[in-house]
Amino acid sequence: MQTITVIKGDGIGPSIVEATLRILDKAGCDFHYQYVDAGLAAMQNYGELLPATTLDAIANNKITLKGPLTTPIGDGFTSINVTLRKKFNLYANVRPVKSFTGTKARYDNIDILTIRENTQGMYSGHGQKISADGEIAEATSIISRESSANIVEFAFETARREGRKKVTALHKANILKSTSGLFLKTARAVAEQYPEIEFNEMIIDNACMQLVMNPHQFDVIVTTNLFGDIISDLCAGLVGGLGMAPGANIGHDCAIFEAVHGSAPDIAGKNLANPTSVILAAIQMLRYMEMHVIADRILLALTDAIASGDRKTRDLGGNAGTDQFTQAIIDRL
């Protein structure tokens, strides 16, 4: 029996994670769940955001399903997600977005996979400091050829495995000639190893415009850490928002699957949250585990529940709550 580490998270996290576990159980997943705390719940129970017991469970079980976490605002608190990515070398962040009939999405037939280097660049928070007088702030961006090659190879291998036709590398090498330039040069070299897959490169600001004007030209996007964080949220906006977007953080022997939106404390405990992001993250998890038949069943049930309008949550245009929407999916299973 596979043991899955479960971090329910903060705010709406517990309700949408519990909904997802109900669906996994109904679909026939024979999992054992080890529940551990992180974020505000861990701070209240253990006095720290990431207790050793949580880190041990992630390391031992290798696969984690995680709800949204809140990092307290203020000096001395490092992003929990960044810490986890560095701790377990989760070098690949995988964020798919796909159109679902029955949502408020701006486009139909969107199917874009954003793959982002997850440990380096400006987003990693390396070298952050503020001068003694508080007038000057500084941070350092580090990009290595090895990490760039790893993420671009991951993107091409994913494209090959999923039968995708094109990989687009997003960069700012015209200005950031050292860091973004190294990433682009490395991406070009890796692309030569995959002649059957079309390779395209695009400056990040143009890519943002192109995604708004003609998103269907994109298939797989690969880019550096900060650019990937921004562009993947833009992509989520194409299909109805972050509630429709899951995320996977994948390393060589460990993976964390998560909702990518915030903890929404204003609606916590009110049976209002849409659990779709965690359900889709669980589908990613099942595919990672090569449990494709069950993943397909859950996706079909979710897709039909949204398309039919049966008990949809408010953000999807309905009036149902978390429990009712979850039950609509379970009924289909």
From TrEMBL:
Return any one Pfam family short name: Iso_dh
Query: What SMART domains has UniProt attached to this entry?
Result: Iso_dh
Q: Which GO terms describe its molecular function?
A: isocitrate dehydrogenase (NAD+) activity; magnesium ion binding; NAD binding
Does this UniProt record's set of keywords contain Oxidoreductase? yes
Give the E.C. number(s): 1.1.1.41
According to its UniProt entry, one GO biological process term is:
isocitrate metabolic process
**Which InterPro entries does UniProt cross-reference here?**
IsoCit/isopropylmalate_DH_CS (IPR019818), IsoPropMal-DH-like_dom (IPR024084)
Q: Supply the alphabetized keyword list.
A: Oxidoreductase
Q: Which domain of life is it from?
A: Bacteria
The Isopropylmalate dehydrogenase-like domain sits at 3-329
Name the NCBIfam families for this protein: PRK08997.1
What the record says about family reads: Belongs to the isocitrate and isopropylmalate dehydrogenases family.
| UniProt name for this protein | Isocitrate dehydrogenase
Protein species of origin: Alishewanella agri BL06
